[in-house]
Structures are given as C-alpha cells and as structure tokens.
Amino acid sequence: MADGTEAAYARRWLVQATLRTARLAELSDEDGWKAASIVARHWDAGGCVSPSPWAFCAASVSLRLKLLLVDDGRAVSTAAEASQKAIAAETLSVADTGAAVAPVGAAAFPEPARSPSASEIATAEVAMVRLLGFDRSAAMDPRCLAHEGLPLLDLAATASCGTSLGQLCALEAKKLEAIARKEAIRVGSAAAAKAKGGTKGQYEGKTVERSEVPRRRRAAKSAGPVLPEAGKDNVLITSALPYVNNVPHLGNIIGCVLSADVYARWCRLRPDKNVVYICGTDEYGTATEMKALQEGLTPRQICDKYHAIHRGVYEWFDIGFDFFGRTSHPDPKHSAGWPQTEIAQEIFKGLSARGLVKEQSVEQVFCTGCTRFLADRFVEGVCPHCEDDDARGDQCDSCGKLLNATELKSPRCSVDKSHSVEVRDSSHVFLDLPSLGGELTSLVEERAASKAWSSNCVATTRAWLANGLQPRCISRDLTWGTPVPHPGFESKVFYVWYDAPIGYMSMTANYTGGYESEGWRKWWQPDGSAGKVRLAQFMGKDNIPFHSVIFPACLKGSKPASASAAASSAKDRPWTVVEEMSTTEYLQYEGGRFSKSRGVGVFGDNAKDTGLSADVWRFYLLSVRPETSDTAFSWDDLAARNNSLLLAIVGNFVNRTLSLAVKAGGTVPALRPEAFGPAEAALFESADAALAEYNEALAGRSLRSGLNAALRVAGAGNSFIQATEPWTLKKEGKDAEYHNAIALALHMVHLVAVVFEPYMPSFADRVCHLLDADHLPFVPDTFNRAGTLPVGHAVLPAVPLFRPITDDDVASWRARFGGSDGSAAGAAAAASAGAAADKKGKGKGGAKGGAAKGKGKGGAKGGAAKAKAAHADTSLPPFARVDLRVGRIVRAWDHPDADKLFCEEIDCGDADGPRQIASGLRAHYTAEQLKDRLVVVVANLKPVKMRGFTSNGMVLCANSADRSKVEFVDVPAGAKVGDRVHCGDIIPAGSAPDSEINLKGKGTNPWGEIFPGLRTDSGCVACFDGTPMTVGGAQLTAPSLADAQLS
Fold this sequence. Notes:
Largest sheet: 5 strands, parallel
Radius of gyration: 34 Å
CATH architecture of the domain at 233-351 and 454-584: 3-Layer(aba) Sandwich
Number of helices: 30
EC number: 6.1.1.10
Distance between the termini: 91 Å
Mean pLDDT: 78
Catalytic activity: tRNA(Met) + L-methionine + ATP = L-methionyl-tRNA(Met) + AMP + diphosphate
CATH superfamily of the domain at 233-351 and 454-584: HUPs
GO molecular function: ATP binding; methionine-tRNA ligase activity; tRNA binding
Family: Belongs to the class-I aminoacyl-tRNA synthetase family.
Structural class: alpha+beta
Organism: Cafeteria roenbergensis
Low-confidence stretches: 47-85, 91-106, 116-211, 825-869
CATH class of the domain at 233-351 and 454-584: Alpha Beta
C-alpha cells in the first residue's frame, strides 16, 4: 500500500469519486456507500494499482446491462485490470443476489490529521495517476490528466490558500467524476460490443441500439399550469382524443399525438410563444360498453385498463403533453362537478336557449339479442345508394355516403350477426346545424384564405356544407355517457361526437384546477387581457367534419352574437374556436391495413420490442407523415432512412465532431474570426437558410418540410468538416484555422441538438449530455457566429447514438409483424421483389391480376387464385394515382336483386375485353340510353360486391345536391376508348396510376382524397380543384348541372 499522508488523500479521493459516480449512475445513497465500502476494501488489500473510479463506473454500467467489464483498449496494468474485474464482479453479485454489504458513512473515511503541503498534494496526485490504472511511470507528471481535456487544479495555490482536505477532495472528485462520466459511457459501449463480438450489443437477447448515454433533460419552465400571458402568442394545442377501447397503431400515433407534440415542442422553443398541449382518452359511448361486454368488465374498468395502456405508449414515444386526461367519470349519473359533465351541459343549455336544439322521435335499430339500441357503427347492411353489402350504419366506405342505420337494407348486428334486429321509435335531441350554416361557411372560407387549415380539411368541410347541412342527433340511448339535461331524457346520454371534442375543454379544466377555476376559461373564453388565444388542432382525416363543422357549431351556437371578450362574466364571453387545423391522410402498413386481431402492423405497445429507440420511430413516422396523401409504412424504407439519414447525416456529424474535439484536447477552442474563410462563410449561409426554412415550415405545421430542413442543418455541419479538413489543418500547423473548425463544428452540434429536439427529444438530451452543456434556450433564427458553448468548456468522447438496421433486422421484423397468416409479410416481400408491374388479366369477379380465364362470381371473367401485384407510387399527386379513363358501354341490363342498379359491360381498353360495372342509374336512364355511350370510368377501384354482382369500377356522374338529378359526364368528340383523363399538368409524364384503390378502411385511397375537389363549375365544366379535366385537350362537361359534385 502507498505509505503516508498521500495514500490517505488518494484513498479519500477515490471514495469521493465513487460516491459521486454512484449518484451519476442514479443509485441510492445507501447503495453508493455500499459501493464505497467495496472500493475501499479493495484499495486496502491491493495497493496503488488497486481499483479506480473507472472500475466502479464499469460496475454501475454492468448493473444496467448485466455485462462484465472487458478491456476497452486502454493500456492498463494487469493488476489494475484484475482489480477492476473483481470489483465489477462483486458489485454485480451484490446487485443480483442481494448479498449483505454493510453500508458505511463518512466516518469510515476520516480526514488526515493535518492539512497537506503542496509537495504532498503533488505526490498524492502522482499516486492517483497510478491508481487510475494507467501503465505509466510513477514519476509521470500529474498533469497527464490534461490529456483527458480536463481543467487541472493549481495545486500550489490551493495549498497556500489553506484549502481543507474536504474541499480539496470535492474539487478532485469533480475532476475524477468527469473522467468517470466519460469512461462509464465508453466502457459500457465497448463492453456491450465486445461481449457479443460485434458492433451491436445484446441485452437479455435483445438488440441494444446504443450505449446508455444519460439524458440531460431541459429544465421545466413552470411548476404550475401554463396560462395565457400578455404579449405572447398564446397557443392552445390539442390532438384528437384517442378512443379508449383499443391500442393505438403507428398510423394513429402519427395522425394526431406525435404531430401535435412536434408542433408543441417547437412552439416552446420560440421566445414569442406560450403554449399548452392538451390531450386524453375519449371514454364514453357504445364502443366502450360493447368492449366491456366482450371482456367481462364494467365500462369504467375498460377505461381504466386502456387509459393506462395509452398513457404508457405515449410516454414511451416521448409525447410531451402538458396534461393527458380522460373524459369519463366513475359514475356518469352522479357526476356533478366533473368538468366533462358541467361543460357539455353548459354548452347544451346555451344551444337550447338559442333555439338550436330540437326534439324529434326517430326510428332506431334495436337488437333483440343484445337487448339494446345499436349505435350506428354496430349496424351493418346493404348501402341504399351503391348497393354495397358491407356498409356500416353511419357511413358506406364504398361510395362515401353518410348514412343513418335505418337506411340500410337487410340490417344486421355486427356484434352477433345471428341476432335479430328491428326498428323502434325513440325520442332524441337534434342540433340545428342548418341554422348555423352561414357562420360555418364564413369560418371555413376565412381559414382557407389564411391557409390555416390543411387542404384536405378545407375540401372535406366544403363538401359537407355544399351537400347541405342536416339536423344532427346528439343524444343516444345508452348508460355510459354524459347525462342529457333535458326533461324526459334522464335515461339518455350525449352522442360521443357531441361530447368528445368538449373533452379538450374539460381536460384543460382538470389541468388548471377544475370546473370552478378560472384558469381553463382563460384559454377557452379569454377576456383579452392576455391577448388572443390561438387554438391549433391535430387529427386524421376521418375526424375532420366533427372538428370543422360540429364542434365549432356547438361553440358558436351556444353563445349569442352579442357575446364579447369584454364581458364581465367569463360565462358570457365567446368560446375559443379552432384557428389552425392540421389533418393527415392515412398511414398504411406494408401496402395493407393495421390489424391488432390479425397481428398485422406495429402497435404502440410493441414498437419498443424491436429494440429501436423512440427517437428512430419518431424520426421515421415524421419523415413519412401523410400530409397530402396516404403513405405507406415499409420496413425497407425505415432501414434506408435510418441508415442514410440518421446515421450518415445526423449521427455522423455529431460523432465526427466530438471525436475531432477530443483529439484536439477535449475542450471548446476560442474562435478567431480574423481567420474565417470561404468555408466559414458557406457554413453561415447554409445554416441560416436551413434555419429560416425550418422555422417557416414548423410555423405552418409542415412537419416533413421542417424535418428536411433540420437534416440540412446537420448536412451543413458535415459539409463544413469536409471543406475545412481539420486533420489537414493540424498537420499544416494552421492553428487558428484548426481551432476555428473544431469550435464551429461543436457550436453546430449544439444547434443540431435544438433543431432536432421537437422531432427526437431524447437524441437532443443525449447530445447535450455528450456536450456536457444545457440545451439552447430557443431555436434561433440564424447561426450564432460567436458560438454558444464557452471557451475551454470540456466535452465528452463520442458515442454512437444510432445503429445501422440490417437486412436481417428487416426480415425478422417483417415476419414478426406480418400477421398470423403472413399476408402482410408476403405482400411486402412481393413488392420488394419488384412486383409493381400492373399485370393484365382478370382476377376474381373480373378484377385485373388473375391468372386463369373463366367465369368468376357474378358472371365476371377471371380466376380467383392469384393476387394482384401492388403498385402505388405515394409520391405522386392523388389525382395522378386515380385511373380515370374513357370507356364505352357495350350493354346494360337490370340488376336482378337491386331495383336501383344497372349491370353494365364497359369496354375500357383492357387487353382482356370489357369489364362489368354496377351503377345506380335506373332512376335516371333506360338501358337503351346507356348502350354505346362513351363515359368516364374510375378504372382502378378494388372490385366490390353489389347484391351479389361484382363491380370492377365506377362511372363518373354529376349529381344535384339532393341526388334527384344525375347526369353522365360527357366525353368530348374524338375521344377514344382507353384515353386517360388529365387535369392541367397534375399527372407527371410517364407515371402510372395505382394498380388498385381500396375504398374500404384505411388503406391508400387517393380517390377519397380527390373526391371533394371533383365538381362542375358555373359553366358545367368538370373540374378538379377548379382546373378543368380534359381528354385529348378537350374539356369534360355535364349536360346541365353546374356547381355539382362529381361521383
């Protein structure tokens, strides 16, 4: 053992460093003292080559990764290595077996009897250098620690000032802690790699994506609820409330909560904004009651179960809600004071007072087997408009028409199709939407003019208004819901789509202190003292009408026109109505639909099972966010984007910079602006341009564009390193240029952390940890030429934060998440193998892609065995993906089982001859009028059955608002069978439409995207979004219907 006072100092410093490292490893104080006692015992037994603080760092990493320390490449003495392994093994044993280790306190490590002299301190530091495990000479200058890029103590000055040993220990321990922080990260990463013989670590059989780099989180701004502030842009952000009876899949996550989270995080990083982000689970309604029946639980138990699942999923995905609440009360019938009940009833009473609530007896579908009225979505049957036999009671996915359940032909209970159903009368309350049509039209046109709403949101809302608003029933015969405060309606509750959006308000109330608090009304009924409140809402396209029509109608209708923000009473002020609405299309899974029951697709509760971090999932989902058209999740695409963008651009820049910085001394050099040259000027220009694009995109909620701009910031850093070649500058002795390159690259890494923070918050935290620096307070408008890290600031060594995704990973995940029947995996594999060509031939019911010729069901040609090869270029505009072409009706006959349908044989130019299509035109034309007529056909729709007849497309017609008049779209003279319909220059040259469009469910549906924009103009010209459609340069027209919907 080292003798004398210096040995006591060294021993004390070692214990101090161990304790501080234990805290760094987030161990309890008791465990820290246990570790200190183990370290001290090894010290006492082993002499001055005994274990170092690095040994305990390795042990703390081992506690997390359950890996023994291995030699990480440093030159350590054999004895030191043995001691390090011994202490790691003992610590692991204590952790795994719970072996008793008596914790000790400070009294076990007393101060030496006298203060040290300068020479003794210097001698002690030499001993510490040896203790740290380096195989170097005992006479080595103690300032060798400068090789770690750490500041040194001025030992002589420290001693002359009479510094106590305790103070000296604290200072020295801080130095050793910094070394330990580096070593804990580096050793853990190397150990994980070496233990499994590769760059990918393994933890209990799972892939470890990165070493355990701690998160240096941004400090919270406020302990209390966020309220509007004067002089700030007060932004109230909501995302569509996820329904509580299921587990969200990736499409649900990107469609609402993740998109809103990115925008909220960016808003928090802008100095002029004050933001609150509210969300929660939507828990009332029939779906919850049915789910409870299926699982043998009460509705509240179902809500408790799935609320916890949702909360856990969003926490793992790093969704930063200010408040995540719920709509339901444990006992809805006795829920007075509960914000959801109080606010929903307050709004209803306001609507009623203005005469906008009507009572009406309606016919409803009652299931005698379930002994309950069935919600619309639990009734199935035949669509009265298109005769599709799989329509739901609220909407037909085949033709897109909204329905009432009683309109369906041959209705059946979807819960149990063997149950008999019947129609019964029931009294309900209706919202008088027609009386609010003018206000709603003004709202959508104002938002459209300011581009505050997504284009699909504007189109969908305009279509709703153009088709004519109808009174909307807002009550249901259920028990699980908010009670309707109306005489004679004591047994009824509010319809979920009246009730659910009010959840944003009630959750804000729960966040700020309850219904009686004034806090929530400052957001939802501002008095103007803190300025305007801007409501920004995020959702998928299926939620649009409820947020753009019904919710604003309820808010506007419940307050008189005279309502003013200056009113003395909060209840007399107008409600905050949506200003910005960001709505997405659908995300497919590998060319199909997500299905929890069939095991198809990645759901929120199993995304982490891939071993990929939440950052990687967030990055990928946001990079394919379906902003203007449906997009498809693809494992191949995920791997490509991870490897070519995250690794090659972002991770590469951070790692290169930190590696260069450590080689340059590990600290931030001072900038020498007089030595700036063309490379620096190019960096400043590129960074500024990317930042301007980034902030503009996020301000407009164009999240994909913002992500691309963030990548350009990192790319500018990579380009700067390539342009300056710091390693060459160092060799050439150009110190000023060399230090400028290192310093600016480090400052750029700091910038990269903040611009990626909204997209990958964990990545930003870990970058700040490696920089050993706090986050930048705000996203800047320009790159700070003076730098954001202080001169001389020490940084930590580089650690890879992302790992490559291999072909084996892709194959494994595709098989795991491809469904029990392998259908999704098979379809994706076929697509990957190049099965994108549009095969000719007839499939089942006459669909293209079949192999054998013959008669299919319904008299259509085609075999049924072979599936069609999928082709869907989601990068094309939706119009370009729809195959609109000229066809000729060869013959037509009455459908034998449907009095509104014609069966038609239409020549569309297919190699296999005419196809069969069903059209609901018998009330408007005779069969003779159809024969030999040229028509426009939607030719790439997935075949659907219409009362036993398989229809392979749709004929385009103009319709009056009440559908009392229907006209074919006329084809111009000279058009030929098979000619494609164009619209300006929307269709890129050489592009091909989708091979098949599935109108049902949440698959890719470009037809659904363009449908609202298909109308005739005032001159009866058939247009898409106001641009005439043409064949051979000549316009398509309707005979007489102007300003009419085309369908």
